[in-house]
Amino acid sequence: MARHKNVVQRRKRHKKVLKRARGFFGKRKNSYRIAKEAVMKALAYAYRDRRRKKRDFRRLWIIRINAAARQNGLSYSRFMHGLYNAHINLNRKVLAEIAVMEPETFSQIAGIAKESLNES
């Protein structure tokens, strides 16, 4: 009679992979061999994109700050340099939020940055 080795562990491993593959399309959700590859790829993308998200948000903030700074007659780099000279320590996330939600306040900050550029 044939022996079945490692059946419990194999079933557990298969169930674990197939559980992660729920919601995938076609055989990717119910064929272990294909689901295993799809899950590995999905995990790799998830790992990569957790890091990429930080870059993407920083780029978005810089674009928003640049647009608002140009409305106030400054480029992004001159605006940031003016803030540095004026000892205003606001990060890009906060500056972008101010630029979108409170343009008047951003105009005041841009004015301070301009003044500090003229002084130096």
List keywords for this structure.
single chain; 120 residues; mainly alpha; c-terminal domain of poly(a) binding protein; 5 helices; 0% strand
Describe the protein in words.
With 120 residues, the chain is mainly alpha-helical. The protein has a single domain, classed as Ribosomal protein L20, C-terminal domain (c-terminal domain of poly(a) binding protein), CATH 1.10.1900.20. Helix content is 76%, strand content 0%. It is built from five helices and no strands. It has helices at 7-20, 32-71, 76-85, 92-101, 103-119. Helix 1 (7-20) packs parallel to helix 2 (32-71) and helix 4 (92-101) crosses helix 5. It is rod-shaped, with a radius of gyration of 26 Å. The protein starts with 6 loop residues before the first helix and ends with a helix. The model has no long low-confidence stretch (mean pLDDT 95).
Q: How much of the polypeptide forms β-strand, as a percent range?
A: under 5%
Q: What is the CA-CA span between the terminal residues? A: 90 Å
Per CATH, the architecture is: Orthogonal Bundle
**N-to-C series of helices and strands:** HHHHH
Q: Do you know the CATH topology?
A: c-terminal domain of poly(a) binding protein
Q: How many domains make up the 3D coordinates?
A: 1
Major sheet attributes = none
Number of helical elements: 5
Helix content: over 70%
What gyration radius follows from the Cα positions, in whole Å? 26 Å
The strand count comes to 0
The average pLDDT value, as a whole number, equals 95
The CATH superfamily name is Ribosomal protein L20, C-terminal domain
